[in-house]
Amino acid sequence: MTDIFNNFDKRDFARPGKSNVLSSNAMLACSHPIAASVGIELLKSGGNAVDAAIAMNAVLCIAEPHMTGVGGDCFVMLSVDGSTNIKALNGSGKSSSNAKASALRKNNLSLITPEMPDAITYQELCSMESAP
Fold first, then answer.
1. What is the dihedral of CA 67, 73, 44, 28, to 10 degrees?
2. Distance between CA atoms of 127 and 87, rounded to whole angstroms?
3. Which domain holds residue 102?
4. N or C of the chain: less Cβ packing under 10 Å?
5. Is pTM, for the whole model, over 0.85?
6. Which residues pair with 76 in a beta bridge?
7. Cβ(77)–Cβ(87) under 8 Å?
8. 36-52 pLDDT, tens per residue?
9. How wide is the angle at C-alpha 81 spanned by C-alphas 123 and 124, nearest 5°?
10. Are residues 1 and 65 in the same domain?
C-alpha cells in the first residue's frame, strides 16, 4: 500500500488542478471542507453514504446558501446492497405545485422513467437504472 501512496505526483498548489485522492474504506466529495468533515465523521461513527450525504447537504445549506438550499437539486448514484448494481437519481428541476406523491401511489407507480409524461411534472423524482 505504501508504494501506491509514494507513486502519486505531488501537486503544485500554485497551479490549477486536482489533488489525488485514495481511500481503502470510504470516500465522499463535497464543495466545502466543513461539510466534508461532517460527512467523514458520520461515516466514522457508523453511518452510511446516505446519512453522510444528508448531513453534508444540511451543512451546505448554511455554509454555501448561495449554492444550494433546503429542497434543492439532488443527484445520486447509489448501490443499496454494495454490489455493482448502481441506481441513479436525478432530482433536479422544478416540479409543479400540483404534483403529489399520493397521485403516483394511487396509480401504483413506484418508478418514473425519463420516457414517461410524468417525468415532466415530477422531474425531481426521475430515477434511472444503470446498464448491466
1. -80
2. 8
3. 73-132
4. C
5. no
6. 89
7. yes
8. 999 999 999 999 888 89
9. 5
10. yes
Is 67 in the same domain as 16?
Answer: yes
What pLDDT shows up at residue 82? 77
Q: Which of 43, 26, 66, 46 lies closest to 56 in space, CA to CA? A: 43
> How many distinct structural domains can be found in the chain?
2
**Of 72, 93, 119, which closes a domain?**
72
Highest mean pLDDT (candidates 4-18, 59-73, 94-108, 116-130): 59-73
Q: Which residue has the cell 411534472?
A: 121
Pairwise CA distance, residues 42 & 37, whole Å: 9
Q: State whether 109 and 56 are in the same domain.
A: no
Taking residue 124's Cβ as centre, other Cβ atoms within 10 Å add up to 17
- What number of other Cβ atoms are within 10 A of residue 38's Cβ? 21
Within its chain, how far is the Cα of 96 from the centroid?
23
